[in-house]
Amino acid sequence: MRDWKSLIANYLQGNPLIAKYFQAEEEEEPMDSEESTESAADEAADAQNLVVPYSMQPGDGIRLQVAYQAEQALVGPDRQLIGYSVFTRNGQHQSVVEYDVVELRKALQRLGTDLFIPASLVPLCSEDGYLNIPTIFHGGPDAEATLATTVQALRNLMVALCYQQRDKVCAFTLSWNEAGRQASISVLGHVTDLRAWLGQAGNLPIVRAEFVRWLERQKRHLDGLPRTRANYPLVEKVVKPDGVLYLKRQPVHQFSPAEAAAGQARGLAMDATWQPKKVQCNTCGSDYWQCPHSTVLDAGVGTTVIGAELVGQFWNDRPA
Ligand SMILES: [Zn+2]
User: Fold this and answer.
1) Is there a domain that residue 163 lies in?
2) Residues surrounding ion ligand 1 at CB below 5 Å
3) Is residue 42 assigned to a domain?
4) Cβ neighbourhood burial of 44 (10 Å; 0-12, 13-18, 19+)
5) pLDDT bracket for residue 43 (50, 70, 90)
6) Rounded to an integer, what distance in angstroms lies between the CA atom of residue 172 and that of residue 225?
7) Is 206 within a domain?
8) CA dist 27 to 23, 31, 134, Å?
9) Residue 39 C-alpha to ligand 1 middle, in angstroms?
10) Is the link from the previous residue into 233 a cis peptide, with omega within 30 of 0?
11) In which domain, by residue range, is 219 found?
12) pLDDT tens digits for 233-253?
């Protein structure tokens, strides 16, 4: 266990939350990222980091985060979305998921399988180049094979996004139970880097000793890549207390007029998150959430949003 801790500590240098991953801690609300930046070396970068602290560019590499927590007794499909965000509106809590998560389900369906997304989750659309795919749990009699298919679907999705030259940053988290604990690995990067990394990463072993060796191989590979910006984005800006990497959009109303002016001076825009009534597939005319077509995996597929309610506005450096 000590070696494992030191390995994780090497991956998560400077992260004040490391100790927590090894205790059965209660889950907490996502961290607030309102604290000021540490050094004022680069004022422009600070303004950018304050408003879009999770922004990444092609070549920035990827961030990996590993967490072990108390095992959850999960029943249901072998591959299921168990993570979600909570959005509060008029005092009402709503469990939400980003609409584009459906593209991973479509990619899995092309491989002859499926991703269970609870019907209680409300899909929201944000007009930006970021995508959070919350924790996907892998169980059943052959969790390792189930996990391998998810990794293949992610690979296919990244290849397709790159083929379409999408300027997109994506975070995803994969989890499974092993030896009485729930393991999760969370990954964040620009789709260009995610495609390259997934292309060499192979399958993820779930037995801990093999998983550690796999992680060490990933570390060697990533250490061998050209270094662009060191320690960017800051881990504390993109990690939640449960070890999930998460792109937390910054609501416009959280910022003072002076901060807003600084953000706009840096070319940042205020964009919107919507709750669509219906997203219609232009190929088959039915509900895009359920239909087999994909705007990412297929050529010439489009969608039409029919009725949408504004959920909020956030800062964006990357128009969709
Ligand atoms: Zn369709």
Assistant:
1) yes
2) 281, 283-284, 291, 293
3) no
4) exposed
5) low
6) 21
7) yes
8) 11, 11, 15
9) 50
10) yes
11) 53-249
12) 888 889 888 889 999 888 888
